[in-house]
């Protein structure tokens, strides 16, 4: 227990050093996952061990921060932390995201360069063993856009609050010139720009690999004041956004255990049934992507609602049947 408390004190000090504005007591409690009284005791321990802590008045509360960072001894990463950084970079590179992978690889080199040689020498064997023992499974699906210049231009426009112009091409449709207010990027099986129409303010998504001649324009173009990218992304089962539906799925007793451990959606609720089955409920858009996922559950899932999901699933099954018939003819 004493060792656990020592680790919590160091972790809290790191949080204070990592925050430019400092942490409130409530934020400390949230970071440590403890009650406010425990957070107060941890704060007092940090104040005793780190005299460089500053108290900042932020009415109606107070904040505490550590300027100048912490020493290399207090900041030395563990083998597990370095492993996750290495794996994240390897996963991005394997998915075709060379630019994002290079950023993490650069961070890894900087972290190692800042470490004491004795610490690095002690860490290296464990890290090498863990890297050999773990890998990332390859998943089928479209490769995200690997165009670093496109991503850099989008990020520049977001930071500067400027409009973004590009030519957008979709299969079966004529290429169109677009000018939007960029809101951010969603990364997934394919990467999407999330942007607001400059006239109507309607939020739209654009696949990065279908965008060409991407360039930040002149003037000011910012997202709607109440727009939240994380909230927008959580509305959909996948990436594609359409009408939000109340989804109800019944999983058979044979698949119930797996369903309980599955993260279907941030809004999900699970209801155990007397026969051993489980009912999953959540609110989401993206019925086509949900239908694709439900194929993997086979006969273990029954769609109870909405009707549109049933129709989409029926359409996908019919299309698959036609493709199979052509292959057998």
Tell me what the structure shows.
The chain is α+β, with helices and mostly antiparallel strands. It has helices at 2-18, 25-32, 36-49, 72-75, 79-94, 98-114, 117-133, 148-160, 229-234, 253-260, 287-295, 307-328, and strands spanning 53-58, 61-66, 164-168, 176-186, 192-197, 203-207, 211-216, 245-251, 269-272, 278-284, 301-305. The protein has a 5-stranded antiparallel beta sheet, covered by helices on one side. A hairpin with a 2-residue loop joins β1 (53-58) and β2. The longest helix has 22 residues, at 307-328.
Q: How is this structure best summarized?
A:
The protein has 329 residues and is α+β, with helices and mostly antiparallel strands. It has 12 helices and 11 strands.
Give a quick set of tags describing it.
single chain, alpha+beta, 12 helices, 11 strands
Topology:
Blueprint: H1 2-18, H2 25-32, H3 36-49, E1 53-58, E2 61-66, H4 72-75, H5 79-94, H6 98-114, H7 117-133, H8 148-160, E3 164-168, E4 176-186, E5 192-197, E6 203-207, E7 211-216, H9 229-234, E8 245-251, H10 253-260, E9 269-272, E10 278-284, H11 287-295, E11 301-305, H12 307-328
Antiparallel strand pairs: 1-2, 3-4, 3-7, 4-5, 5-6, 8-10, 8-11, 9-10
Helix pairs in contact: 1-3, 2-3, 5-6, 5-7, 11-12
- What topology, given as strand order, has the largest sheet? 6-5-4-3-7
Q: Categorize the overall geometry.
A: globular
Radius of gyration of CA atoms, rounded to a whole number = 25 Å
Give the DSSP E fraction (strand runs of 2 or more residues). Answer: 15-25%
Distance between the termini: 70 Å
Largest sheet: 5 strands, antiparallel
Order of helices and strands: HHHEEHHHHHEEEEEHEHEEHEH
**How many individual helices?**
12
Number of E strands? 11
Report mean pLDDT, rounded to a whole number: 84
């Amino acid at each position: 227990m004493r060792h656990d408390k020592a680790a919590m004190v160091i972790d809290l000090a790191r949080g204070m050093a990592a925050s430019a504005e400092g942490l409130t007591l409530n934020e400390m409690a949230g970071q440590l996952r403890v009650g406010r009284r425990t957070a107060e005791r941890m704060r007092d321990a940090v104040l005793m061990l780190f005299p460089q802590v500053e108290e900042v008045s932020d009415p109606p509360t107070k904040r505490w921060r550590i300027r100048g960072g912490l020493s290399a001894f207090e900041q030395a990463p563990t083998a597990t932390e370095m492993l996750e950084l290495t794996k994240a970079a390897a996963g991005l590179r394997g998915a075709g995201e060379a630019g994002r992978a290079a950023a993490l690889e650069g961070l890894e080199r900087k972290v190692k360069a800042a470490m004491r040689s004795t610490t690095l020498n002690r860490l290296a064997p464990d890290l090498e063993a863990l890297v050999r023992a773990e890998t990332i499974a390859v998943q089928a699906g479209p490769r995200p856009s690997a165009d670093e210049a496109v991503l850099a231009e989008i990020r520049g426009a977001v930071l500067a609050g400027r409009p973004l112009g590009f030519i957008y091409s979709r299969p079966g449709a004529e290429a169109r010139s677009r000018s939007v207010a960029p809101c951010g990027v969603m990364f997934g099986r394919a990467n999407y720009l999330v942007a607001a129409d400059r006239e109507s303010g309607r939020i739209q998504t654009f696949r990065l690999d279908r965008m060409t001649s991407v360039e930040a324009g002149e003037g000011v173009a910012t997202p709607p004041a109440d727009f939240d990218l994380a909230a927008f992304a959580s509305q959909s089962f996948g990436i594609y956004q359409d009408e939000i539906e109340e989804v109800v799925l019944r999983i058979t007793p044979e698949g119930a255990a797996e369903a309980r451990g599955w993260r279907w959606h941030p809004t999900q609720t699970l209801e155990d049934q007397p026969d051993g089955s489980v009912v999953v409920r959540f609110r989401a858009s993206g019925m086509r992507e949900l239908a694709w996922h439900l194929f993997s559950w086979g006969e273990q899932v029954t769609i109870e609602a909405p009707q549109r999901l049933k129709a989409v699933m029926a359409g996908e099954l019919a299309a698959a049947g036609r493709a199979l018939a052509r292959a057998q003819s």
